[in-house]
Design brief:
single chain, alpha/beta, six-stranded parallel beta sheet, globular
Length: 214
């Protein structure tokens, strides 16, 4: 019997991955580097890596300056779109599950970005806990975020489900031995989700899946 759901944030609850891609693309373009969507999907959604290797001639302090510019640009993009970020069906789905299970958000998102993203979503009240970048040692695809979620929830892996949208998130869940459901969208259509227990076209299908799974 499933007692807890651990939700990824970006791409599952909120539509932010396109903004993150665009902030990276614009910053790297200033340094003469063409950053396409395929590269972004490989780095961010599959491997959970940064753009460091694209700048082999720069020192780490120089790369960190570029990251800071990227992060600020991403923040500005979020602020402009904050009322439009919640994905369709999310609030209704969370409302159906609220009070029936323990629910947490488990994300690699920076805390400042997370706060900006959820300034107007109105969904944080549905969650019992939130884990963000800095709340665990290693980010996805390492299992640390989900191992921390298990510790907080007090449940065993078989009593929990993860809801993700990326290969690296799926890998993190699998490494923590927690079954994972994938929400599909345009950026993950070519991903390898063979480790998932289910791939759903929309988050609104999750409550029905949960009934069948239990």
């Amino acid at each position: 019997m499933i007692k807890a759901i651990f939700w990824d944030n970006d791409g599952v609850l909120v539509d932010t991955e396109g903004l993150y891609f665009e902030s990276n693309r614009q910053v790297l373009a200033r340094h003469g580097i063409e950053f396409d969507l395929e590269t972004f999907i490989d780095l961010s959604l599959k491997r959970g890596a940064g753009f460091d290797y694209l700048l082999p001639n720069l020192t780490e302090p120089d790369i960190e300056k570029i990251r800071k510019v990227r992060n600020q640009l991403y923040t500005e993009m979020i602020r402009k779109k904050h009322r439009e970020l919640l994905l369709p069906g999310v609030k209704e789905t969370l409302g159906q599950l609220y009070g029936k299970l323990t629910m947490g958000i488990v994300t690699s998102c920076r805390k400042d970005h997370f706060s900006e993203i959820h300034r107007s979503t109105g969904i944080l009240e549905y969650f019992d806990f939130i884990l963000q970048n800095g709340d665990y040692e290693r980010s996805k695809p390492n299992p640390d975020p989900y191992l921390k979620a298990l510790e907080i929830s007090g449940f065993n892996p078989g009593e929990c489900l993860v809801v993700e949208d990326s290969e690296r998130g799926l890998q993190a869940a699998a490494a923590a031995e927690i079954p994972c459901v994938i929400i599909s969208h345009s950026l993950n259509s070519k991903a390898d989700f063979s480790l998932a227990v289910e791939v759903l076209e929309n988050i609104t299908g999750f409550p029905g899946f949960l009934e069948r799974y239990n």
